[in-house]
Inverse folding.
């Protein structure tokens, strides 16, 4: 279809309201025509009725005239009758002529006179029949016109009303759809990760979303009326307002800073556009994390360059001396140069392996082969591996722990323990004791590596887990290492759904601790093997711990997962009665996990326990599959557990009393 055809097709589309109005006008015109026809028919009918009445009067007068003439001679009654007839038929020339031609009334001409009167009577009677027939015909015609016109008018009005009703329904549906669309759009605006602010022509804020209030450091209700120049600046000096030209409606794009009421600054990337109504829409993205990443990247490149160049320089220098033959006469120095080259080569290999490890772990490309493993053998293996290193440093290694089963990748946990124990040995004085232990901490196994070294300052307790960060910059040269071991350990522990931290006192030593989820059979000791099975999936480790203990305390078997893939693995292992699922997960969408559950185990029930807005399609699927939607801000963990018990099946009354 060409553009012209599409244009005319679009132009010929008439809205129901236009058709209804047009038909309504036709109906009104039809009613007007009905009224006019009714008036004309009534007028004609009155005329015919008048003629019929007049004819009857003429016939009565002729009858009187005929009776008076029957005497055979003139008399006053006859004269009056003749005069009355003459007056009545003056509009009928034929009758007037007949009346004038009547002979003189005497006995000789009586029969002739009566015959003429009879002819006049017959003619008048004929006229009576004609007018009566005409009146009846007009009456029938008028009634038919009135009935048909009324039916047509009513039909047209009915069609008009139907079309008007359809249009009103369409408009109502459009208004409802518009309201729903506005509500969804408003919800999207409120949940946007970027700050969105509306500014008027005076460069004052009119409205803003929740993220804008968070970045500005004010409540959402206080946004309206704030001058733009009071919190947006070109840099952290805070002297020059950055966006004065927004007052004139220009378009702005660039990076600025927002000053909060407490004096802190937030770097933002701004994009502002002029709207049709004269307002300016500003979208500001917090780039604090991006700047930190860029800084960390620059620092990373700088450190890696230094760490790579230093051993390469040593290797090159040693090999250069050997290649030149300058040490051939001194075997001891030649051997020393070879050892130096080999040592720096090992250092380069360790550095490269550590860099690859930390990148794979941080990007999520290091898959974990999780299984139920015993914690004690992992400690034994790590201690045995590092025992020669400890003996060389004069450090005594001791270990102890509970017999626990953990859900973990054995090699990765061994790597973490080896990193922590190796660091502790390097910073422990000769003659000190290094203790490694593991104990149960609710639904986790807590590993601990305690040394008697120099300790860590309080301001370094967190930064030492960052890449290439050490307590003292000289440690890299004096103690060896790449500065990546603790960053790798943190990545491994967090990937398992645990956490890692350090407790330290300067001059007294440090204790590095990390937690790993226990295997389900360890946690579920005391829970009957035939008890209902519940899977809880959430990326909040603390919340998982609380829910796991509460549900297991009710006698239900409980497995936990911090990622969507872990949850799918647990779903594949065995059918759960109930899945408690957060919709926001680090790797998959919650709705995808739910669809997998429904496809694998259609009878399993699900509780969506989330704090985010659900799309209508997702909400419909959850309810269609028998799921329950609970909002975190409105549902306590106790209420959630009660819902789990309800969905898990019968015979939970005693359990309900237990948690009540």
């Amino acid at each position: 279809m060409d553009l012209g055809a599409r244009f005319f097709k679009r132009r010929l589309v008439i809205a129901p309201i236009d058709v209804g109005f047009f038909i309504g006008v036709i109906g009104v015109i039809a009613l007007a025509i009905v009224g006019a026809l009714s008036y004309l028919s009534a007028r004609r009918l009155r005329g015919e009725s008048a003629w019929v009445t007049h004819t009857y009067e003429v016939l009565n007068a002729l009858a009187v005239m005929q009776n008076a003439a029957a005497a055979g001679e003139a008399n006053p009654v006859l004269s009056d009758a003749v005069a009355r007839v003459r007056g009545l038929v003056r509009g009928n020339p034929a009758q007037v002529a007949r009346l004038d031609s009547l002979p003189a009334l005497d006995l000789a001409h009586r029969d002739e006179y009566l015959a003429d009167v009879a002819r006049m009577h017959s003619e008048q009677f004929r006229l009576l029949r004609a007018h009566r027939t005409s009146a009846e015909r007009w009456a029938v015609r008028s009634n038919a016109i009135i009935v048909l016109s009324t039916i047509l008018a009513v039909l047209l009005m009915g069609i008009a009303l139907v079309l008007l009703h359809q249009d009103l329904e369409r408009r109502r549906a459009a208004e409802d759809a518009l309201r729903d669309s506005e509500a969804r759009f408003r919800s999207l605006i409120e949940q946007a990760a970027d700050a969105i602010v509306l500014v008027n022509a005076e460069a004052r804020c009119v409205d803003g979303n929740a993220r804008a209030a968070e970045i500005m450091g004010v409540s959402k209700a206080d946004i309206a009326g704030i001058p733009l120049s009071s919190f947006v600046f070109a840099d952290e000096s805070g002297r020059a307002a950055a966006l004065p030209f927004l007052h004139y409606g220009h378009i702005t794009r660039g990076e600025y800073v927002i000053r909060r009421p407490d004096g802190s600054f937030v770097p933002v990337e701004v994009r502002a556009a002029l709207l049709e109504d004269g307002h300016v829409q500003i979208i500001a993205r917090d780039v604090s994390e991006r700047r930190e990443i860029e800084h960390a990247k620059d620092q990373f490149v700088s450190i890696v360059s230094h760490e790579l160049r230093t051993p390469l320089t040593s290797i090159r220098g040693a090999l250069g001396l050997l290649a030149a033959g300058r040490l051939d006469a001194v075997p001891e120095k030649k051997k020393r140069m070879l050892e130096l080259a080999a040592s720096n080569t090992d250092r380069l290999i360790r550095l490269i392996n550590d860099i690859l490890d930390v990148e794979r772990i941080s990007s999520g490309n290091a898959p974990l082969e999780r299984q139920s493993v015993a914690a004690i053998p992992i400690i034994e293996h790590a201690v045995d591996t590092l025992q020669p290193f400890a003996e060389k440093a004069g450090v005594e290694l001791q270990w102890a722990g509970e017999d626990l089963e953990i859900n973990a990748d054995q090699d990765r946990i061994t790597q973490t323990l080896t990193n922590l124990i190796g660091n502790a040995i390097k910073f422990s004085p000769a003659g000190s004791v290094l203790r490694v232990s593991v104990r149960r901490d609710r639904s986790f196994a807590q590993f601990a590596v305690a040394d008697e070294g120099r300790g860590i300052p309080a301001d370094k307790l967190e930064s030492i887990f960052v890449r290439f960060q050490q307590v003292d910059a000289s440690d890299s040269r004096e103690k060896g290492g790449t500065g990546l071991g603790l960053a790798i350990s943190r990545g491994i522990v967090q990937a398992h759904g645990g956490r890692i931290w350090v407790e330290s006192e300067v001059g007294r030593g440090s204790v590095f601790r990390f937690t790993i989820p226990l295997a389900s059979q360890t946690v579920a000791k005391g829970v009957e093997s035939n008890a209902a099975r519940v899977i809880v999936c959430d990326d909040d480790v603390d919340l998982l711990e609380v829910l796991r203990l509460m549900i297991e305390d009710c006698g239900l078997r409980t497995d936990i997962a911090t990622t969507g893939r872990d949850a799918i693995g647990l779903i594949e292992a065995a059918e759960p009665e109930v899945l408690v699922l957060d919709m926001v997960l680090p790797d998959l969408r919650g709705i995808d996990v739910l669809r997998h559950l429904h496809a694998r185990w259609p009878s399993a029930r699900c509780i969506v326990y989330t704090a985010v807005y659900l799309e209508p399609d997702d909400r419909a699927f959850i309810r269609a599959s028998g799921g329950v939607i609970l909002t975190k801000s409105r549902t306590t963990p106790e209420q959630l557990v009660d819902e789990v018990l309800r969905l898990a099946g019968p015979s939970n009354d005693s359990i309900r009393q237990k948690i009540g």
